[in-house]
Amino acid sequence: QIKTFIGNYLSKYEEIENIILFGSLASGRFNENSDIDICILFKPSTPKSMETAIFNYFLNLGKELDRSIQCIFFFPEDIKNWDTIFVENILAEGQLLFGNSNYFTTLIKALEFKPYQIITLNLRALNSSAKMKLKRILYGYKTSKKYSEKIYRYQKRGLVKELQGIKLGRGFILTYILLKECKHNLIYQLNPKDF
């Protein structure tokens, strides 16, 4: 309901290109203590005063909902100054509330992924063991074991992270140059018998 309400209300502003939800509400980790994270991408030449009007709206909405609403504003003219941590989070888990999916291209430009490749994975034909193995190779994993009252933790970075890529839902983004390296590493680490 919150997502629909925000999307419908803000879509009346012609200056807004995209409204993207990210953070815990987008990723399914939302609880009673969570805040709401929204990203607003403006169209070129939008006056900066628009930020204040929308910020005030979210301030009032947050009071009504008794919940903190964090809003990130991106103006195309300032693309070189965008915070890459927020951009990576939005790419990884963002949900589009308003606008079209071209926002991916705009955000990727902020990370200077040129040229880049978006890889989408279709794992339906794989059995659960093969899916798990592939996901662990690509995205890494964490394990912990208790031995003699002591907990030992191990974390393995995935191939996507090692090659400075970003996980996106059912796929990932890699620079085109590193795509060959990713393929080579996958072939090296996978056993064809598993698939």
UniProtKB/TrEMBL annotation:
Ranges where the Polymerase beta nucleotidyltransferase domain occurs: 6-101
Xref: InterPro entries: NT_sf, Polbeta, Type_VII_TA_antitoxin
Protein name, per record: Polymerase beta nucleotidyltransferase domain-containing protein
